[in-house]
């Protein structure tokens, strides 16, 4: 009997250790990585009771999804989504009035579904609103400043094309708009529009980020994300010193 109890305890310990390892992983250099901001009051819509919703999203999209702890002074939390840059599972198809866009990798599919969870509350609150102009939703992405050039283009031609093709407001906000939960090397990309217009914009922006990965050998996500600025769900992680070096030059701001 005692031996059986030891076996059960050992099994539980192994499960806890495995969960801790999974929740504290960081992206591989080749992974496609997205970091979307979620208002703290809406984080329950993404996580779910007992983590049920986020576990389903992880399982169905085959992506890693981690949620940051709250950061003092910020009303948002960072959701990091990543996966190997392989082809996604879904193909484009019509479902009623909605078009499901083909995902280029599992992380992109997860990003779109996380976005749906974030804006769901807004859409439910405005469902009975007859004035369609009031139904404006927002998506905010944190993008490393060495990757944001693919969204701007030469002379801003890419971001202007995205605005024209999607009909959404797409802006690279000034540095003083960065939330305290962001890293000092982040740029803040904000998109706004009616639900389907915004979803199209988020899809196009995330596609460009997928197709133009960071050219450096490794993204500098691990130390900040495992320190006080950001870390995955799970047991508290030890504080690590901030990364050293001179802050890189920030990319030019979108004037609009």
Task: Tell me what the structure shows.
With 256 residues, this protein is of the alpha+beta class. The chain has one domain (30-214): TATA-Binding Protein, CATH 3.30.310. 36% of the residues lie in helices and 18% in strands. The chain has eight helices and eight strands. Strand 2 (64-67) and strand 3 (76-83) form a beta hairpin. Helix 4 runs antiparallel to helix 7 (195-211). The radius of gyration is 19 Å and the shape is globular. Mean pLDDT is 77; it is low at 8-24, 92-97 and 222-252.
Features:
three-stranded antiparallel β-sheet; TATA-Binding Protein; 36% helix; 256 residues; 8 helices
- The order of strands across the largest sheet is 1-3-2
CATH topology: TATA-Binding Protein
Helix content: 25-40%
Mean pLDDT reading: 77
Assigned CATH architecture: 2-Layer Sandwich
Number of strands: 8
- CATH class category label: Alpha Beta
Task: Characterize the largest beta sheet: strand count, sense, and whether it forms a barrel.
Answer: 3 strands, antiparallel
- Rg estimate, integer Å: 19 Å
Q: Which percent band covers the strand fraction?
A: 15-25%
Q: How many structural domains does the protein architecture include?
A: 1
SSE order, one letter for each helix or strand? HEHHEEEEHEHHEEHH
Structural class: alpha+beta
Q: Low-confidence runs (pLDDT<50, min 5 residues)?
A: 8-24, 92-97, 222-252
The total of helices stands at 8
Give the N-terminus to C-terminus distance in angstroms.
71 Å
